[in-house]
Amino acid sequence: MLQCNANQPSIVRFENFNAIPVKLRSHLPIWSSPMEQWIRIACQLEVTARKPGNVHPEAAFHDLSQSDFLRAADAVAPILANSASLGIGQAVLESVEATQQIKRGNVNLGIVLLLAPLAAVPMDRSLAEGIADVLQGLTQRDADKVYQAIRISQAGGLGEVNEQDISTQPTVTLLEAMQLAAETDSVAAQYSGNFRQVIDDGVKYLVDSCKRRLSWETAIIHMQLKFLATTPDSLIARKNGIELAVTAQKKARSILDADWPDTQRSSQLLGNFDEWLRADGNRRNPGTTADLIAAALFAAFRDGRIAPPNLVSIESVQEFVGDGPDVCNSTTESETSS
User: Fold this and answer.
1) Helix or strand or coil: residue 13?
2) Whole-structure pTM value
């Protein structure tokens, strides 16, 4: 089950190599900071939970697998952890370039765009307190770097806007560019709205799941359904039109209204939803919602609202789905020192 931290932040740290369990030292990324750890674990958990319509351990797309996302997480975590010193635009560009060395195309652009400014908030301020200053400090240079990153990743741009097209040189700041795209792109909308959907709504969904003592996988699927039921997925809308995105929204609502995960009917509806999302060559993939989930997980870890699980290898990530151990087995710093 999830472990809440209502008052004090609780961070998983390894003070040295010998503190890490021997059985987990293979494939070991040595983190230079807690920030890297939060970023990596958020990305790992998002792609490992078996969410309807998304890539996960048991469902790959023709051009993307869980392994691609896990390797990309390892590549971008140390870069994004230094967003404050690199600058948001530079951190996004370097993250995309690092990802391209692993897998060509758009693997994690949305996640990178969301995590870069969140990771840049000074640690002496909560995300809610500090994100506005980070966003207000964005420059035209940041916009130029992000435009380069979008072109490199071969993504579809920032929604459908007539101004500041991604193929041109930006003449506005990154925040202003995101504001122009906010109505049609949920990632851009986070910039425009001070990340409230992530920091307030997403973290609340996780805390509520914690109170219900749900497993990590169930909590993440629940967050996906809540996000989808609230806002049509902008990737679905971009590929298929807003009407189909609204249909997906209604299906997510019907699953929650059927008291998922507590009823058999809701489980049947979830399975049907997964099949429907994967139809038509995975064009209905709710990919933007997956990006929001990764960002919300990071926000919960970073602000100490939820203790992150103790994951230091791909093998240990896989244990947190299906019939694996309860997430209440996650180890906090206070527990390891007692």
Assistant:
1) coil
2) 0.86
